[in-house]
Amino acid sequence: MAKPVLLVHGAFTGSWVWDKVVTELEQRGIQATTVDLPSQGADGTLERDAQTVRDALEVVDEPTVLVGHSYGGAVITRASANNDGVAHLVYVCAALPQPGEAVSDLLGRDPEPHDDLAEALEQRADGTATFKREAAQETMFNDATEEQLAPVLDKMGPHALGTLGEPATGLGWQQHPATYVITLQDKQFSVALQQEFASHVDTVVKVDAGHGPMFTKPAEIADAIAAAAN
Fold first, then answer.
1. Phi, psi of 188 (to 5 degrees)
2. CA atoms within 13 A of residue 162's CA, in its CB half-sphere
3. φ and ψ at 89, to 5 degrees?
C-alpha cells in the first residue's frame, strides 16, 4: 500500500500550488494532503513553517512522503530532522541546504544565476514581499501557457523575507531516503545548482520544465512522488 504524501509549497504561493498534483496522486491511489505555511504572513519564520509541517505529519500519524517545492525544501529539511514520521523526502526544484546555510546563501552561490531575485520583488513595510507579476511570468513560470499562467499569477501573494536568511538547523536529508527533481528550464535555481543539491540524495529525476512544474508537468511530478510512496 502506498505511503501518504504531504506537500509543502514554496515562497509567494500557497497550498493551492499543488492542486493538479494532488489530483494526479489521487488518481494513482495515493492519499495527498497540503499545508499553508505561516511565512505567507509578516510574522512567519522558517521554524514556524517547519513546526506547521511537523504538526501536519502528526495528524497523518504514519510514515509519510514529505515533498517540498523551492523554499519549501528548506522547510522539509528542518521539519524532517529527527522525525520518525517521515518515510521519504522529495525535493521539487527545491532548496537543499548544507549545515548552517540559508536559502539566500544557496541563491548567492548559484554558479549560473539567471536573475537578481531582489529586483523581481516588491518589498513591503511589514517585512514581506510579493513577486512582480511580469518577473514571475519570466523567471518562475517561463514554460507555462497563458491558460496555465493567469490563475497562478492571480493567486500569488506575500512571503516573509526573513525566512530566506534563516540558516538550516537539522538536516533531514541526511537521515531519510530522498529524491531530487531537477527542472531543466528553471530560471530560479539553475540546473547546475540543482545538480549540486541532487548529488546529496539517493534518486534523481529530470523534468523538462521551469520553476513551476506542478502546473506545467503535474503528471511527471506525481510520477516522481508516487515512486517514492510505493
1. -100, -55
2. 14
3. -110, 140
CB 66, CB 89: distance < 8 Å: yes
For the chain, the helix, strand and coil percentages under 3-state DSSP, each to the nearest 5? 45, 20, 40
* pLDDT tens per residue across span 114-136: 767 778 899 999 999 999 999 99
Span 48-57, pLDDT tens digits = 999 999 999 9
At 162, list the grid cell: 526573513
Under 8 Å CB-to-CB from 21, ≥6 apart: which residues?
7, 32, 214, 218, 221, 222, 225
Give the separation between CA 102 and CA 86, rounded to whole angstroms.
22
C-alpha cell at 110: 548559484
Answer yes or no: are the C-beta atoms of 182 and 204 closer than 8 Å: yes
Phi, psi values for residue 50, rounded to 5°: -60, -40
Q: How far apart are CA 5 and CA 1, in angstroms?
A: 12
Q: What is the pLDDT of residues 134-173, one digit of tens each?
A: 999 998 999 998 888 888 999 999 999 999 999 988 999 9
Q: Provide the sign of the torsion angle of the four alpha carbons 113, 119, 121, 124, taken in this order.
A: positive
Angle at 219 between CA 216 and CA 220, to 5 degrees: 85
